[in-house]
Amino acid sequence: MKRAYLALESWFNVSFGTEWNPVYHLGTLTFFLFWIILVTGLYLFGIFHGSIDGAYDSVEYITHEQWYVAGVMRSLHRYASDAAIITILLHLFKEFASGRYRGFRWFSWVSGLPILWLVVTLGITGYWLVWDELAQYVAIGSARLLDSLPIFSGSMASNFLQGEMTDRFFILIEFLHLLGQPLILFFLLWLHVKRLSNVDINPPRGLAMGCLLALLVLSFIKPAVSHGPADLSSMPTVLQLDWFYLNAYPLMDYWSEGKTWLLATAITVVLMFLPWIPPKKDAPAAVVDLAHCNGCELCFDDCPFEAISVQARTDGAKFEKEVVVDPNLCAACGICMASCPSSNPFRQTNEELKTGIDMPSLPVDKVRTLTKEAVAAMTGPANILLVGCEHGFNVNRLDNNETKGVKLMCSGMIPPTMVEYALKKGADGVMIVGCRHNDCFFRFGNLWVDKRFSGERKPILRSRADRRRIKVFGGSETDRKSIERELKVFRNELLAINDQVAFSNQADD
To answer: What pLDDT is stored for residue 323 in this prediction?
Structure first.
């Protein structure tokens, strides 16, 4: 399944580029679609007449009499709602296929599932409001489902079948669709991203505009229209179902309501417990060493999952603040270790390197040792140190006499000074091979690397380091050919640089 997802991702990279790849922005695209649904819904509400006798006629007026504005708004509302289901399901598939649902990520997975079900029920109540033949079919089917539950009296379906539905009940559905369900959805969305830091709910502008344009074109080519008016004295025979929202209703033509509930419940329970099937043991959480922490808060700013907080100093040192790690939220990515200024490998050269915040499973001193050993083991004319991560391409597969790999938990775990250290120890170049661009397993690893090396985010790569000898290229386990191609280009560039340096030295002599 992971390879299927990576293939899909690669295809979108070719079609849209890495910056606008919709697979990388499924969450923010869903938020954007919700904004479209909200704006178009508010516009339609101003024209809509919420009553048994007035609902259908007002929707027909929206669709045909004012097709150029309200009709387009209705179609946008419909198609954006369908698109939201698609992006949510793709987001669910992506997180599952890439393994981003287990361990410390269980909360995001579990809190995301109710959002899917609530969006589905929002769509269902939306179809009720049109009050056409499809709405009648949905209303009766929904009533049958609710009647099968012990908490209801069992008379809802008969109210529809006997034509006893009143405006008061219709107003209740209108309240649920326009206020009650959206408020719950807003709360669930907040809960879903609660454990994430630096949350951006806006997709890239170009991708958002492209999405809006595509929905507009679809709205003009195939506008949303209604079935015939609802008639509770008869049953509709031909319906055009919206399978994104109404897929469960045809089941009741073959199954009982109880079996339909059982299927929905079973799917939900399995999805809810997936993060623990089987249980995953996360690596040990980051550990703070106050003896080397000055309370600069860089690790707090860089943590992708809000596992780090800042509090008043407790050890009596001259610094005002210290950081604290919540082990229940820590992803053990090591990004914080690279954020710490004390992770400079040029410090404590003759003793164990200590830093303000470190990873027990792969401390900064071990990273320095691995870097030093890898550089010392290369004997080629253009030696390249590859720094990879556990969730991208395995850089050790490219080891030879002039290429050695050091694999970290995340590419964002490498301190900029460690790259400078590798060059100082004899590497001709350092190539950072993390996850695919814009698709870091730990959200910000490759982004922080880019910003640190470009001087946009502390700790920055110092100016004394030769930027020509550093390359960043992300790739997954299926991208070996692309990485080898980039490695070959980089090696040729380094050979040219080495020749220039040798010629310059000869000229000086």
So the answer is: 96
